[in-house]
Specification:
about 450 residues; alpha/beta; TIM Barrel; two-stranded antiparallel sheet; 15 helices; binds beta-D-fucopyranose
């Protein structure tokens, strides 16, 4: 009997080992396939032309440009010492709230035909259940100013900043709070839907979860991984509800969600573990969410900034190297235009229109912004040629602005804002984008 037990045990162990080997080879094959770059041919046309009615825009977010959003959770956060680099503040600095007409004149000068901006929930509903008509009127004026200049709006309903009262009630941690968001969405859509066709229900929910609850560098600044599953399900539910609300008001509206998508790759092409980690992070960070909400999506908003490499050989250096050196290497956030092509092809399987709702480079980066834009636009062209239905490109950002916990250190703007005088000047490095937007084409200098 004893020896029988022993044999059974051996058989179980062997079967388990075989099963694990099989599973790990299966995962490696899948992840190698997943990470394998498609690559593309280079066109022999001198000028690459985009589809008719393509949208060339720039993006902003209310909290980052408006100033004076005193009822937001971010307002409270920025007053706390040590939260924002250099102690930077938003009040009275950029003032897009007061100067939007001037900013749109400059957008017109840059030949932009679209503008993505967000509505500030904490202005519309400064206290629970109290909706401020004066503020909805402000956004109506903003939409009118865009219309006067033939600039098509894309409106984000929630871009990272929530009202302080909402955060105090537990924010997105509590399922029942989703109703507060839908009440706000109802109010905005009832008032503005006649002037808006393109809506984003929310911006980068995964970034919100990570920065608010994992790294804790954004409000509510809790390091609490146990909240992650609940946040995820509340946010996806909120998206679905907002989608229905918008469609009830306007059957022709186009509703999407904006997702952060870096190009995540193994640092060593042939390393099995790095391959598995890269494909798992890419799926968990981006595509899992899209899979959950794909029936409630008319389009997908894709944000692409850089390539990130998974480099396990760094792990063993952690104890021996200078922490700053490790930090620089492990971030490995590289400017990599070809990554945009690869990222876009990964979205092809959803068979939905795509808008690149953010892409950009800060002034401090050594790359010239003209070159950055030209090369990424070219990669987007090849993705379109290869069957991805990309319909618009929104540079981040129209203006230099408050870069969350980085304060004003990361200036991404096409337009420079003098932080003392608020004076606006189009940067020299933005004119190539104006040429691209103006001709709906890009020069193929790879020939
Ligand atoms: C994106 C955010 C946007 C801005 C840019 C640089 O992830 O959506 O608000 O901070 O990064």
């Amino acid at each position: 009997m004893k020896s029988l037990n022993k044999n059974v045990l051996v058989i179980i162990i062997v079967i388990t080992m075989l099963f694990c080997c099989l599973m790990s080879s299966f995962c490696s094959v899948l992840s190698f396939k997943y990470n394998n770059p498609h690559g593309h041919e280079i066109s022999d046309e001198e000028i690459l032309i985009f589809p008719e009615n393509f949208l060339w825009g720039a993006a902003t977010a209310s909290y980052q440009v408006e100033g004076g959003n005193v009822n937001s959770s971010w307002w409270r956060f920025e007053q706390e010492e040590g939260r924002i680099k250099n102690g930077d503040r938003t009040d009275g600095i950029i003032n897009h709230y007061g100067r939007y007409e001037e900013d749109f004149d400059l957008a017109s000068k840059l030949s932009l035909n679209s503008y993505r901006f967000s509505i500030e929930w904490s202005r519309i509903e400064p206290q629970k259940g109290e909706f401020d008509e004066k503020e909805i009127e402000h956004y109506r004026d903003v939409l009118q100013a865009l219309k006067d200049r033939d600039i098509k709006p894309m409106v984000t309903l929630w871009h990272h900043s929530v009202p302080a009262w909402f955060e105090d009630l537990g924010g997105w941690e509590r399922g029942e709070n989703v109703d507060y968001y839908t009440e706000y969405v109802n109010y905005v859509v009832a008032n503005l839907s006649e002037e808006v066709e393109l809506w984003l229900t929310m911006n980068e929910p995964m970034a919100y979860i990570t920065c608010g609850y994992v790294s804790a560098k954004w409000p509510p600044a809790k390091q609490d991984l146990t909240q992650v599953p609940g946040l995820f399900s509340n946010l996806t539910l909120a998206h679905k509800e907002a989608y229905s609300i918008i469609h009830e008001k306007d059957a022709n509206a186009q509703v999407g969600i904006a997702e952060h998508s870096s190009y995540i790759v193994p640092y060593h092409e042939k390393n099995i573990l790095e391959n598995i980690i890269a494909s798992t992070i890419d799926y968990a960070w981006v595509h899992y969410l899209i899979d959950i909400v794909k029936d409630e999506l008319d389009f997908i908003g894709v944000h692409y900034y850089y390539k990130q490499s998974i480099n396990l050989s760094l792990a063993k250096d952690v104890l021996t190297k200078d922490p700053e050196e490790i930090e620089n290497q492990s971030l490995d956030r590289a400017y990599y235009p070809e990554g945009l092509y690869e990222v876009l092809l990964k979205y092809k399987r959803y068979e939905k229109p795509i808008y690149i709702t953010e892409i950009g480079v800060p002034d401090y980066h050594e790359i010239d912004r003209n070159q950055f834009i030209r090369e990424h636009v070219r990669e987007m062209y090849y993705a379109i040629q290869d069957g991805v239905d990309v319909r618009g490109f929104y540079y981040w950002s129209l203006l230099d602005c408050f870069e969350w916990s980085e304060g004003y250190d990361a200036e991404f703007g096409l337009i420079d804002v003098n932080l003392e005088t608020q004076e606006r000047t189009i940067k020299d490095e933005s004119w190539e984008y104006a040429l691209i937007a103006g001709c709906n084409c890009v020069y193929n200098d790879e020939l």
